[in-house]
DNA sequence: CAGTTCTGCTTGTGCGCGCAACCTCGGCAA
DNA sequence: TTGCCGAGGTTGCGCGCACAAGCAGAACTG
């Protein structure tokens, strides 16, 4: 009757054996009942007795023992790059977690800060699948493989280039296309100051430059902009002098920095300088002027990611293809046709 | 010599027994060497042989088996409320993870979305400690306890009120104090539209109202502001008509929404309406006008959180007190003395 | 030289569970 | 009566490790 029932009088945990003894059956029967093991035949009456006894005693299976005996853990580890978490990413993760959760997998999200003192997480939790939001570095792949995990996404054998992932670069292409279609011929690319984003920014920048070449426009400058940088106004003026009329911003935060600085420096947006952001954050729609931006179907990507993980976990064949580009441009006040 | 060495020819994992056999010692010796078990005396020569053999075979201990045998897992589970992750929170987590990592604990961060299909994470990974960034609900406490975890922070027995946590409400108090000290007598409280933040916003609002009473000023209105809401401009005008001259915003995002809308509606900020944000995001300093905001010492809080978790994990006594308020107000363009 | 202590190991057991293989017993056809 | 079958279980082993207890031999002790 003890309401706790959580612990034996000896402070030992309640095991399946305890339940078995208490229900007058064998340990195996308890396992069969509790796991609904297919291919076993247990009479309804026994089944009920076991279940009753289990709840009465407050039985809870040991995750460690289960993992050990089963050799699997029903965990999917999602590894994040060390980026400041944007809403887009967060939305994507939430959706992925939801889908995997429904399939009975627990999702552990983990940011790899590189310098781990403790064990890498994949050693500690023995996940069935490790999913990277960005392709793993060879060192990471080695470490994960060394932990005995073979199910890794994206497939490391493809030696995938991050610049080939639509979700990563489609936005930048769209940004350039948008400005080009408005008649802007000379552009600048604005990166964030946060060094953690430098690599990603470089990839997007490259994609933007490639797209510019394809469209016959020019990216005349690319640099990191920091809202704390006193020299930022002169950078903007230098852009104008260089004939630059459009700015491709890494994200809305950067776009806001540029636009905010411009407004303060009496540079007209979009008349003098058109700026397009990325991620379509809420801020883009309340900033003054409102910011044109690229929206990403993060829910869709999250779902796709979860599907990849599930395929891997259950040993199904999975396409190595990425879903089609599902980025779209939202035009607002910060961009207009070039004069 | 097999460079893989990861798997036996039979595809079985390499166990401590394999290493033992290969090194010509017993299984226990291998364990003692690899764990540096105190109180055991192994000759340097044997030690080296074991280590060599272990690396040669690519031995990796099974986390599940270790957890099972040891009865502990060296994992700290941090449970997040279901909030959109702000930079502040993220900074706090990163710091906490860093500290715990250094102590040899792996940190798993987990967002509790409520409707879990899979097992709650605390059942799946059997962490030693579960830390909530916000006090757990009774239901959560029950669930965690039911999973056999006794080390929980914040201490659930205190039945702690979230409104009593300095980190949560100190900012709101500071905001009110700031506006009051500038001579604003009638204020409005602006909450975010995201329903996930409703509870937290309510707590902050209450704290603001209490502080207002204490300072002899009045919070005349409190409502959620949504940047997609067409009626927002008229809300602001209504505020002005009601004599409201200062706005306490839940966070910088909300502050930006208010300020952006005001600017668009030809309401002067800060002359007609002073607005103070919360979190001191980068945006606050590039918005036009720049936003006064409350900064939180998130690194300090993260460190404190980690310390609490460590105390709990290692069974040390831990103070139930919170660290003193370490919020500070950054004054920028969006606030000025009342006329 | 018997007795004691210390060193450097080894053997054995238990952690809690999953699952293959095996048992028992009643029903039923030959 | 024997033989077979299927329902409803049970016994036993293995997962990989930690750790208590034991044990041989060397090194001291008196």
From TrEMBL, chains A, B:
<dbReference type="GO" id="GO:0003700">
    <property type="term" value="F:DNA-binding transcription factor activity"/>
</dbReference>
<keyword id="KW-0805">Transcription regulation</keyword>
<dbReference type="InterPro" id="IPR010982">
    <property type="entry name" value="Lambda_DNA-bd_dom_sf"/>
</dbReference>
<dbReference type="Pfam" id="PF00356">
    <property type="entry name" value="LacI"/>
</dbReference>
<protein>
    <submittedName>
        <fullName>LacI family transcriptional regulator</fullName>
    </submittedName>
</protein>
<feature type="domain" description="HTH lacI-type">
    <location>
        <begin position="14"/>
        <end position="70"/>
    </location>
</feature>
<keyword id="KW-0238">DNA-binding</keyword>
<dbReference type="InterPro" id="IPR046335">
    <property type="entry name" value="LacI/GalR-like_sensor"/>
</dbReference>
<dbReference type="Pfam" id="PF13377">
    <property type="entry name" value="Peripla_BP_3"/>
</dbReference>
<dbReference type="GO" id="GO:0000976">
    <property type="term" value="F:transcription cis-regulatory region binding"/>
</dbReference>
<dbReference type="InterPro" id="IPR028082">
    <property type="entry name" value="Peripla_BP_I"/>
</dbReference>
<dbReference type="InterPro" id="IPR000843">
    <property type="entry name" value="HTH_LacI"/>
</dbReference>
<keyword id="KW-0804">Transcription</keyword>
């Amino acid at each position: 009757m003890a309401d706790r029932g959580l612990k034996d009088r000896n402070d030992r945990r309640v095991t399946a054996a305890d339940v078995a003894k208490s229900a007058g059956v064998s340990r195996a029967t308890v396992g069969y009942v509790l796991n609904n093991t297919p291919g076993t035949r247990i009479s309804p009456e026994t089944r009920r007795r076991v279940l009753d006894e289990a709840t009465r005693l407050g039985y809870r299976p040991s995750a460690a023992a289960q993992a050990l005996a089963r050799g699997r853990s029903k965990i999917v580890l999602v590894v994040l790059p060390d980026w400041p978490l944007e809403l887009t990413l967060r939305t994507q993760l939430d959706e992925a977690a939801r889908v995997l959760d429904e399939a009975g997998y627990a999702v552990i999200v983990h940011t790899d800060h590189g310098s781990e003192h403790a064990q890498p997480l994949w050693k500690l939790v023995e996940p069935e699948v490790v999913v990277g939001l960005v392709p793993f570095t060879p060192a990471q792949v080695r470490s994960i493989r060394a932990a005995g995990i073979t199910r890794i996404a994206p497939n490391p054998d493809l030696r995938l280039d991050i610049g080939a992932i639509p979700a990563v670069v489609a936005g930048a292409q769209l940004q350039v296309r948008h400005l080009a279609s408005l008649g802007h011929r000379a552009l600048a690319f604005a990166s964030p100051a946060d060094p953690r984003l430098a690599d990603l920014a470089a990839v997007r920048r490259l994609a933007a430059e490639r797209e510019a070449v394809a469209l016959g426009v020019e990216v005349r400058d690319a640099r990191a902009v920091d809202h704390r940088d006193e020299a930022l106004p002169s950078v903007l003026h230098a852009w104008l002098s260089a004939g630059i009329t459009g700015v491709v911003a890494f994200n809305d935060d950067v776009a806001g920095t540029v636009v905010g600085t411009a407004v303060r420096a009496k540079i007209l947006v979009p008349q003098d300088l058109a700026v397009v952001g990325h991620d379509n954050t809420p801020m883009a729609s309340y900033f003054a002027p409102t910011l044109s931006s690229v929206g990403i179907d993060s829910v869709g990507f999250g779902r796709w990611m979860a599907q990849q993980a599930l395929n891997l976990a259950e040993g199904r064949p999975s396409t190595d293809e990425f879903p089609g580009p599902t980025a779209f441009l939202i035009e607002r006040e910060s961009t207009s046709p070039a004069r």
